[in-house]
Write a structure and sequence with these properties.
This protein is 58% helix and 3% strand. The strands form two sheets. A two-stranded antiparallel ribbon has the order 1-4. Strands 2-3 form a two-stranded antiparallel sheet. α2 packs antiparallel against α3 and α8 packs antiparallel against α10.
């Protein structure tokens, strides 16, 4: 049995819920753009960190995807602390241990301030080293030898090297296992289609990077230009799910 609709969005959450209430299994055969996946937003935000000179908002977007090692409480404290002290630039994020008062210009640190400071430092320690290692891909030759903290300008890198650095970053933060765990959680919650789509994201991202590496190879570009091309490749790709059983309403 198939139910065909010109606009399925108006029936999502209604038709499937009604069928489930009556014990009728169903499958929504529709594809989502790959660009809507949180993992893609994570990588585009990472590229933006490099392209925009370590803007705190891009780092917070990375944490907001829920796919980094940073917990929710650590992410909140990271956002508050960096806003309070207007932290920006690679040198400030890579400094050895933040110790300023999260409450601002006050002589004593409150109990809440001590917790916030600890959580903000934990978030930084979990995320910034991996981000900085990715940024090293774009170090200009003069800076690559002796300068690792802060640079006067953004360099360029070969597309193949950028793609390799993106995969290394994903491996460092454990992106693939996190996607698998999120997929399992969605399936356990009854969202089989969403779980199946989430499980496809890593393979699709690798396929997009493979395309760019094979077509552009040793062409050099900065993070901003690469991000634009990456977004165009991703925009042409979709993630979908196949029926998980034989007897289902499509």
């Amino acid at each position: 049995i198939a139910v065909v609709s010109r606009r399925m969005d108006s029936l999502r959450g209604i038709l499937d819920a009604a069928l489930a209430r009556h014990g009728i299994p169903c499958f929504l055969a529709e594809a989502d753009p790959l660009s809507s996946a949180p993992a893609v937003r994570l990588l585009t935000s990472l590229l933006a960190v490099e392209a925009r000179g370590y803007d705190r908002r891009d780092l917070i977007r990375m944490i907001g995807t829920g796919l980094t090692p940073v917990t929710a409480s650590e992410g909140d404290c990271f956002a508050m602390y960096t806003e309070t002290w207007n932290i920006r630039g690679r040198a400030m994020f890579c400094a050895d241990g933040w110790s300023w008062n999260p409450d601002g210009y006050r002589p004593e640190v409150s109990p809440w301030g001590k917790i916030c400071l600890r959580e903000a430092n934990r978030a930084r320690d979990k995320l910034i080293p991996a981000v900085a290692a990715f940024s090293d891909t774009f170090l200009i030759p003069e800076a690559a030898e002796g300068q690792t903290k802060g640079r006067p300008r953004t360099g360029v890198a070969a597309v193949t090297d950028i793609c390799r650095a993106l995969v290394t970053f994903c491996e460092t933060i454990g992106l693939y296992p996190r996607l698998l765990e999120r997929s399992r959680e969605q399936i356990r919650a009854g969202n089989r289609e969403e779980g199946a789509k989430t499980a496809q994201v890593w393979g699709q991202i690798c396929q997009a990077l493979d395309k760019m590496a094979s077509l552009l190879g040793d062409i050099s570009m900065d993070a901003g230009r690469f991000s634009g091309l990456f977004a165009r490749v991703i925009a042409s790709m979709e993630i979908g799910a196949i029926p998980t059983a034989v007897d289902e309403v499509l």
